[in-house]
TrEMBL record:
Residues 1-27 are annotated as: Disordered. Residues 23-327 form the Interferon-related developmental regulator N-terminal domain. Belongs to the IFRD family. It comes from Quillaja saponaria. Residues 373-425 form the Interferon-related developmental regulator C-terminal domain. This is Interferon-related developmental regulator 1.
Length: 442
């Protein structure tokens, strides 16, 4: 292929004033008045959050649901560092309680709240506590027969808390195995009994890919993973095909396929029957060829009856970029304006991270990207202006030293990520892919 896509950039502009998806929490306050027996007065944000947290102790599930929704709105609207500093443990344990006993709606809300809590606290002891305390109840909840939205929320939560709080590959692999068992019974016995829906498969593959960006792929299962993802490219649901395509691009970008081919070729050359290639070498080449042919077909799909043109175009653009990457090594590039500041990515790994976080944070994406040091470190993003007023939280001197120290977990992680990206980008031209996979242009 030529450099058709490598000459294009997709620029996305996000304004810090864009909070259309964040509604007022005043509805929760008015609903809470008869429950608490309090007078209807104007309350500051911390007081509202305190009341919402207290409401999580209520027996009525609908009251807890409204409280969780109010907490999520507050976290999306502003960074709640002061509240988290005071009530971190209480909020975490009440959300975990909701996951254990609540309705599907309550579980989904609690899962999202825990993910927001993890991003707010960033790397450190609190993030590790969230991970260790949350994995058992999340794992148990994923084994139950549930609706797709609940399972998707649980998977997203597990991905976020592992991304923030996981310190080593073993912890990430543990979460990845939990995710994979949701839809792929060959990797474990504790799985959902019913056939997973397309929405659950899409969520699992997206969450799995998100975590895979932070680790080396386990060679023990990579061929099985590629075979499964290849089978998903043949599914009727377009969102499943898109998620599988991104995951395959990430695996190819990691270099493990080429490494395995080289190793199998060496074994093949050493066999006594020189005229007959080693079985492993033939299998890997066949698997690679099959995926490339599938990608070619999807990049030129004509569409079917009732097919949404927007979704079809998203699929074509994605698989054209994947095909160009497979054939020419051109990685995707995203150029975004966030409140006037520029954020750029140049790999499948970064694109997947950005897409996942943008989807998870929704209307709170801009504020979180501008204010959370952890996300600045992940993307090498340095905003020039802040969206919080002067009266809001300021990072402490101890925290600044923690973030800036070359020996900090955060900086070590960033160094590893940057080294990996430099290796992957060496000698490659730049392609493109839109951050808004299947979404309307921002």
């Amino acid at each position: 292929m030529g450099k058709r896509n490598s000459q294009r950039k997709n620029a996305v502009v996000l304004d810090s004033d864009d909070d259309s998806s964040v509604s007022s929490s005043s509805s929760f306050l008015s609903d809470r008045v008869p429950v608490l027996g309090a007078e209807e007065v104007k309350l500051d944000n911390d007081t509202l959050l305190d009341q919402a947290l207290d409401a999580l102790y209520e027996k009525r599930g609908s009251t807890r649901e409204k409280a969780l929704a109010a907490i999520i709105e507050a976290f999306n609207g502003n960074l709640q560092h002061q509240f988290v500093e005071k009530r971190f443990a209480t909020l975490l344990h009440q959300c975990l309680s909701s996951i254990k006993r609540g309705s599907s709606i309550e579980v989904s809300l609690a899962s999202h709240a825990i993910g927001l809590l993890a991003l707010t606290v960033g790397c450190g002891d609190n993030a590790r506590e969230i991970l260790e305390e949350s994995v058992p109840p999340l794992t148990q909840a994923l084994k139950t027969k549930s609706d797709s939205s609940k399972i998707s929320s649980l998977l997203e939560c597990l991905a976020i808390i592992t991304f923030v709080g996981g310190n080593d590959q073993e912890e990430t692999e543990r979460s990845i195995q939990v995710m994979w068992q949701v839809v792929h019974s060959k990797l474990g016995s504790n799985v959902i009994a019913v056939k997973p829906s397309a929405a659950v498969i899409t969520s699992m593959v997206s969450a799995w890919s998100f975590l895979l960006t932070t680790m080396e792929l386990n060679s023990k299962h990579w061929q099985e993973s590629i075979s499964y993802l290849s089978s998903l490219l043949e599914k009727d649901d377009r969102s499943v095909r898109i998620a599988a395509g991104e995951a395959l691009a990430l695996i190819f970008e990691s270099g493990i396929l080429e490494k395995s081919i080289a190793e199998a070729k060496t074994v093949s050359a050493g066999t006594q029957e020189r005229s007959k290639p080693h079985e492993g070498y033939t299998h890997i080449l066949g698997l690679k060829g099959k995926v490339i042919n599938q990608v070619k077909d999807l990049s030129a799909e004509a569409g079917g009856k009732g097919s949404a043109k927007k979704d079809l175009n998203s699929q074509r653009n994605l698989f054209r970029d994947i095909l160009e990457f497979f054939e020419d090594g051109h990685c995707p590039q995203i150029s975004m304006k966030i409140g006037g500041d520029s954020l750029q990515t140049s790999s499948w790994s970064q694109m997947i991270q950005l897409n996942f976080l943008k989807h998870f944070l929704g209307g709170g994406f801009v504020k979180h990207m501008q204010e959370i040091e952890f996300l600045h470190d992940v993307f090498g993003f340095t905003p020039k202006r802040r969206c919080l007023p002067d009266s809001e939280y300021r990072i402490s001197g101890t925290e600044k030293r923690m973030f800036r120290s070359p020996n900090s977990v955060l900086n070590k992680a960033r160094t590893q990520l940057l080294n990996k990206q430099r290796m992957l980008s060496e000698g490659k031209n730049i392609g493109h892919y839109s951050v808004n996979r299947g979404d309307e242009e921002v």
